Amino acid sequence: MSGNKSNNKQTFQDLLIARLNSLRFALTEPLRLRFARMMYGSFYANNIGSSPLVSVCIPTYNRSSLLIERAVASVLAQSYTNFELIIVGDHCTDDTEELLSKINDSRLTFYNLPSRKRKYRQNLENHWFVGGAIPANKAMEIARGKWIARIDDDDTWPPDHIKNLLEFAEQGQFEFVSALHIEERFGEKRIVEGIQALDPYFTQKPLPQNVSSPKIGGVQTWMYRSYLSFMSYNPECWRKKWNRVWDVDLVTRIHYSGAKIGFLEEVMAFVLPRPGEETVGLEAYKLTEEDKMEQYKFSE
Question: Which CATH superfamily is domain 12-296 in?
Answer without folding.
Answer: Spore Coat Polysaccharide Biosynthesis Protein SpsA; Chain A (3.90.550.10)
